[in-house]
User: Fold this.
Amino acid sequence: MFGGRPDPTAKQQGSAYAQSRLKWYKGNTHTHTLNSDGDSTPDEVARWYRENGYQFLVLTDHNFL
Assistant:
């Protein structure tokens, strides 16, 4: 409370706290390999993304399970 009223900075402080606890992840959810219309093997693609700081990768080759 702020002089009997809600503290005007409380929302901002709560928001800053929440933001400090959030974590963003770097990733790609759509990429192809030689199994469809890409130009590298799945291993090469995964290695490139790992070496470039990505935390997740989804291979989305066409007509390939």
The two ends are 58 Å apart (CA to CA). Residues 23-65 form one domain. Helices lie at 10-21, 42-51.
